[in-house]
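R.M. (postdoc): so does anyone remember the format we settled on? I'll just put the structure tokens first.
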């Protein structure tokens, strides 16, 4: 009998053209950002998977690396590969350029999934009126629909989400668990990094408050 939850997937991405350098290689205080994220997720998930095109890059890390060998780079392909390999039915998925992780919010979502008996494909975060594909739980029951969308080259994540039976978590609920940390921050431009380093150090020092 497969466990309901227990797996986290970090999508390590394709080309970081806007950054002009590879975001997944970014370091804070000598540690890869991706490793900081993986460690934080590893404190609440039994299994952390890194999905990447460049499997050599993270060889030194102690996490399971999954090669995404598709020609096109699209996060949906990484989601598919990760879910396929996941050891649990539901997987929490984030992207490597989203470094603010709220364990508090993750615990809320995990408990929600563990307690629920009704069939559902996932719990998807909303950022205002937008579907926020990361910081969300996906399940293996979505694989067929994702595969279909990939086959017709529809790589828009929100399109397959809309085909599935998911529950959306609204911004008010999210803020209740994350306080004022913006978990949807992502690093796109070099100037984001400078602002972000300070925020991140502060966030690391202020441990997740228990709810």
């Amino acid at each position: 009998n497969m466990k309901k939850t227990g797996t986290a997937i970090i999508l390590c991405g394709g080309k970081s053209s806007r950054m002009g350098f590879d975001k997944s290689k970014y370091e804070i205080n000598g540690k890869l950002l991706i490793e900081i994220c993986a460690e934080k997720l590893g404190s609440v998930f039994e299994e952390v998977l890194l999905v990447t095109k460049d499997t050599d890059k993270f060889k030194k890390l102690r996490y399971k690396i999954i090669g995404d060998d598709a020609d096109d780079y699209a996060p949906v392909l990484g989601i598919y590969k990760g879910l396929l390999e996941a050891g649990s039915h539901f997987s929490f998925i984030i992207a490597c350029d989203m470094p603010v992780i709220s364990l508090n919010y993750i615990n809320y979502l995990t408990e929600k999934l563990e307690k629920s008996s009704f069939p559902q494909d996932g719990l998807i975060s909303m950022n205002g009126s937008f579907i926020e594909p990361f910081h969300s739980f996906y399940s293996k029951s979505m694989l067929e629909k994702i595969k279909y969308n990939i086959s017709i080259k529809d790589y828009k994540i929100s399109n397959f989400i809309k085909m599935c039976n998911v529950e959306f978590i609204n911004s008010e609920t999210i803020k209740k668990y994350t306080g004022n940390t913006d978990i949807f921050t992502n690093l796109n431009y070099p100037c984001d990094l400078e602002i972000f380093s300070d925020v991140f150090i502060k966030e690391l020092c202020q441990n997740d408050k228990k709810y």
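R.M.: ...and that's the designed sequence above, right after the tokens. Also worth knowing: The two ends are 30 Å apart (CA to CA). The helical segments are 33-42, 75-85, 103-115, 143-151, 157-163, 171-178, 190-205.
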